[in-house]
User: Fold these one by one.
Assistant:
Number 1:
Amino acid sequence: MELSLPLLETQFKSWKGCPLSENANPVFGEGDAKAAIMFIGEAPGEQEDKTGRPFVGAAGKFLDELLASINLKREEVYISNVVKYRPPANRDPTDLEKEQCMPWLKLQIALIKPRVIVPLGRHALGHFLKNTTISNAHGKAHKLTDLVTIFPIYHPAAALHNGGLRQALYDDFKALGEFLKSIG
């Protein structure tokens, strides 16, 4: 049997390798299984935990708005998180929690084969670009391999807490849109 995203998701839902699974619902990811662009956040929040879907709360609504600003829809991209369960009280995920969930994200990436990976925020960025910060890396293309480019952007939730980042997010999405046009 060949591994597919639906099969992987079924296997994931019975996985208990992260203690967060004891008190939170699994949020695997969603979107186009052959998407050229993949957005990766840090971990589900309260609304995501309730619905089992990534980026459906306030940050998700802002992400939808940002996608629309470059003529993309959720259905055309794939959206996931590094950590697949909501940490208690929306605290930052720990390094151990990120490490425990990382194999699932790696398998998602291997199956989807995106050309552009967009880490949203520092937790997602840390896996792809080790020696930089989100404030230094955001809004710019970073070639990972000949086939994959990392294009870090601030997490949409950051702009909800710090209105000053709102324009930076729009600017980063505009740069992402231009980059996507340049690679066809």
Number 2:
Amino acid sequence: MSVAALQLTSDELEARLRQIGANRYHNLHRFHHRLHGGQCTYEEVQAWALNRYYYQAMIPIKDATILTRMPNPEDRRQWRKRIEDHDGREESDGGIERWLKLTGSLGFPRDYVTSAQGILPGTRFAVEAYTEFCRSRSLLQAIASSLTELFSPAIINERVAGMLAHYDFVSKETLAYFSQRAVQAKRDSDFALDYVKKYAATRAEQNSVIAALEFKCSVLWAQLDALWSAYVDGAIPPGAWVPGEKTTHGQAA
């Protein structure tokens, strides 16, 4: 059998990528079900928002590393929108700012959140591994790793509906980060999917695309594993935020 015969068609590659989402996306994680099913305590929701901030804050840094490697101006124009979505065009705009409104509504001082002082080691390691992956792997792999956005609109709808139904300490205003993400994620995943289908020209490249998406799913899964261990099972590691402690940048009292 020739190498060409072993290659996946574009439709077969897309089907393989979508199957990864069906099998590995973090909507299957037990913490996801706990959060959206109304079973989390207030402190567990606080911990989720605090730790998730670090992931949100690193997304435009990750995207900037990818942008610098894109030789095509039109690709750069499309990718640049991701950075603007999170950083905003003005100081009071953007996804990161909206996430800080959520953590603020949950009682965290802004400077404590942005310092990343209280996040879990598992959160830090997972997010920084993802950023390094996008810096050091091929451009094709880096773009492919973003394809978890194929699956995010569904989880966003579950998250918002579930949290509004079960927690009286959140509102549409405090969950405003998610109001635009479904549309943005669809735009971004359309671009990334078209890109990998176009440029994954060999079976080896197709396999690298598949592996990149599997890795990204593991990054998201690992963050929820860390949350469960620390705040559901109660094994909070040294240096991480402890519920009930007053938080200020530089100290916990």
